[in-house]
Design goal:
It is built from 22 helices and no strands. It is mainly α and 514 residues long.
Length: 514
Amino acid sequence: MESVAEGLWGLADYHEKKGEIGKAVKCLEAICQSHVSFLPIVEVKTRLRIATLLLRHSQNVTHAKSHLERSQLLLNSIPSCFDLKCRTYALLSQCYHLVGAIPPQKQILYKALQLTSAVAPDVSVKLWCCNFNSQLANALIIEGDYQNSISTLESGYVSASQICYPELQMFFAASILHVRLLMQWDDQTAVEVEQALNRCDQVWDTIPSERRAHCLGLLFYNELSHIFYRLRISDYKNAVKHVDNLDAAIKQDTNNMSQLQQLTLELNALNQSLSRSDIPPRERSALSARHTRVQGQLTSMAIATTSSTSAGNDYLEPTYFGNTRRALQDKLLLAPPPINGEWLPKSAVYALVDLIVIIFGRPKGNFKECDKRIQSGMHIIEEELVRLGITDGVREVDLQHSAIWMAGVYLMLLMQFLENKVAVDLTRSEFLEAQEALVQMKNWFTRFPTILQACESIIEMLRGQYAHSVGCYNEAAFHYVVAAKVCCLTWHQFTSSIQQQHPSLHPKDLGSAI
C-alpha cells in the first residue's frame, strides 16, 4: 500500500505545481479516507501535507486544524518521529492562533517544549525550541502576560546562543525589546528597557556584514524598535538617524525589486523567443548567451534580496498573522527556519515607515513631503485591504476570523494616515479636504467599530479641532467632551489638555456643552 500512497503523493505534487490545489487535496484525502488501512506514519505525513496546503493556499483553517489534531493522536502511539511531531505541534499551534484559541495553543506548545527537553540537545532540537518559544511568547503577549512572555523569549535567546546563531539571537533580543516597550514603565523597567536596547546593538554588531544583507526583516524590526523607544522617551534627535536608515533601506529594496521584475520580464521574453523553431542558428546562439547571462543576474539578485536561510525550507510557511499567500520577496522574514515568522508584512512596514516620516516632518512644516507620504502609505494600505477582501460594502461581521488581525493592522494604519491628513489640512486651512478625510474616518469606524474602537476618541478630537478651526466653538466643545468620555479621562485631565491645545476655549464653554 506504500506504493499507492507514494503515487498519490506524486499526483498531488503534480497538481500543486499546476496550481490545482483542490485536486491536490483530494488526492491526499483519498489516502485518509481509504477503506484499506495505511501505516500510521503514512497517514500522518499525508495529513500534514493536507494541512500545509490548506494553510498556504486557502482560508480553511478549521479543516487544516482537524487534520493536524488527528495527526497528533496518531503520533502519540509512535515513540519516535521527532521531526514529524514537532512539525505537527508547530502547525497546530499556528491553527489555534488563527482561530483565536489561545489556551489550547499554549497547551500544545508546552507539550512541544516538553518533547524537546526529553531528547538529545542537537542543533535541530534547539531550532525547534526557538520555534516553540517564539510562538508561546506571542500567545502570552496576546493574553497580556508580558513578564512570562519575556521569560519565554529569554529561553529562546539561550537556545539560539547555545548553537551560536547570531541571527536567531537578534530575533529574540529584538522581540524582548519589543515586549518591554509594550509594558508600563517605572524606574526599574526603564533600566531593563535600556539594557534590552543595548543588547540588540551588541548582537547586531556580531552578525557579519555580508550576512546582514540577508536580514532585511531583522533590520526593520530593530530600527523600528529603536525609533519607538526614542519616541517614548521624547528623544527625537536620536530617532531621526534610525528613520533615515529605514528610508534608505526601503529605497534600496524597492530598486532591487524593480530590477528583479525587469530581469524576470526579460527572461520570459527570451524564453518565448527561444521556443520558436524558425530562428536562424546565429540568432539562437546570441539569444541563448543572453538568456544565460540574464538568468545568472536573476539568480544572484534573488539570493541577495531574500534570506538565504529560507531557500528550500518553506514547509513551515509562516501563518501567524493571517494566511494571505505572498511571494518570498514580498516578505520580511525575521528568522531562519523553522521559525520564518514575520512581525508585519513588508507592505505594512513600508506604510509604517511612511507614517513615521510624516510624524517627524509635520512639526518641521515639510507638508509637501507629508502629502507624498500620505498618498504613498494610503495607496499601499488600500491595495492590501482589497487583497484581504475588504472592498466597498464589506463590514466587520463579513471578515473571516483568520483575516481579522491583519485587517486590524492595515485599518489602524489607515486611520493614522487619515488623522495626519486632517492635521496637515487644518494647519494649511484646507477645510474641505480636512472634512473629506474626517468623513472617511467616520465611515471606516462605522463599518469596523470593534477593530477601530481605539480610534473613536481620536475621531471626536479631530472633529472638535475642525469645528474650532471654522469658529464653531460650542460644537468643538461638544466633540471634546464626547472624546473625553470615550477615553475615560478625568475632568481635570480633560480641561487641561484642551486648554493647552486651544487657549481661547474657556472651561465654562466646555461645561455648557455637556
